[in-house]
Amino acid sequence: LNLACVGGASDLAMRALSPLTSLTYLNLTDCCNMTDEGLRALAPLTGLTSLDLTNSPWLTDEGLRTLVHLTNLNTLDLVRCLNVTKLGVRALAPLTSLINLFVPPSLFDDKNFPTPC
Hints:
Blueprint: H1 11-17, E1 25-27, H2 36-41, E2 50-52, H3 61-65, E3 75-77, H4 86-90, E4 100-102
């Protein structure tokens, strides 16, 4: 389901998606009105394998912690989620099916990711 650039997609809209438990793909790029509450509403979508949250400025580490129930998730995009920190990304460790994780560049530093020779 591609809801990219649906600016009006809000927490209420995310609650409306919760019965779609067989959904495997959800693109919420630029859904700028969604908060952690909306992310919590996605917890029943345990069939999700791909979730794109690019440019979700109101999402925080607290919201990311609610994703640990999405055990089939193999792709998660958090680029331009400016309130996500390393702690939030670490909370995703139980998602052992996660293969592709896209995070804000601000989470990288030279100590953890040195420049290649």
